[in-house]
Amino acid sequence: MMRSPLLIAFVLIAAAADAGQARTAPVAAALPAELQDRVGAAIVEALVQRMGADARIVVERLEIASVKDVTPIEAVPEPGARTGEVVAFALLGSVGTGASRRVISVGRATALVRVEAPHVKATRLITRGKDVEGDDLQSVVEDVPGVPLRRLPTSGQLLGGHALRNIAAGEVATSTAITAAPAVRSGQLVKATATIAGAQISATLVAAQGGELGAVIRVVNRESRRQLRARIVAEGSVEVIYE
After folding, report:
1. So where are the chain's domains?
2. Beta strand residue intervals within the chain, DSSP E
3. Residue 83 and residue 150: Cα distance in Å, rounded?
């Protein structure tokens, strides 16, 4: 499915004493370059799915401990991973087709992950329990370190919420610090898109669960009553996940 537009940088560089000098990192030298690139692309795709298509992903110091040459390769970050840190990834593949298809481990990798994405910062100290107002927040697009690998809320989602703890001036505002209005509510009619055999189709489904942007929820086809899994990609919109 086409993403529009993706601002992605896949960079394999090592720290250099001279900031003006970058060199290629010694990334699993014994592996074919094409296989290294596919692992890097899988990591970028995993981060885009979690941080949003408008995020710019930079992957540095990629080190591949092991990997089998399968297609496709999926990267899954370790639980609790955060931006601006070295993250461990499980590399997964699949064998078989249809009902006999199963997911298998095909390797491991680590990489330093940096993300530049739209997010919201506090313009001043917001004390715990305060209702958040427009001039409490500032929308920016810049590097965002130290946050979990999930899409960050917009000011529109946070305005009117209340602070769950003290938030310092300049701190990134997240849904764990400020209550956020869900992008989808349980029982809501949502626009669902899916890609089947290379073609994109859309339909109106019912959300069986609510959630914020990036969350995976259950949705229901009103006619067949079939339940599907879908990722929330915008307010009132989801993307069906086929496994």
Report:
1. 8-116, 189-241
2. 8-10, 13-14, 23-24, 56-67, 74-77, 86-95, 102-122, 137-143, 189-196, 199-207, 216-220, 227-234, 237-241
3. 10
CA distance 219 to 134: 33
CATH of 189-241, one of 1.10.3470, 2.60.40, 3.40.50, 2.30.30: 2.30.30
Residue given tokens 């946050």 in the structure block: 147
Contact call for residues 237 and 228 (beta carbons, < 8 A): no
DSSP element (H, E) containing 38: helix 33-51
Cα–Cα distance between 231 and 170 in angstroms, integer?
30
Contact 146, 101 (CB under 8 A): no
* Total-model pTM: 0.65
Q: Could you read off the pLDDT of 70-116 as tens digits, one per residue?
A: 889 999 999 999 999 999 999 999 887 777 778 899 999 999 999 99
- What pLDDT score does 208 carry? 95
pLDDT digits (tens, 9 = 90+) for 164-208: 999 999 999 998 899 877 788 899 999 999 877 667 788 999 999
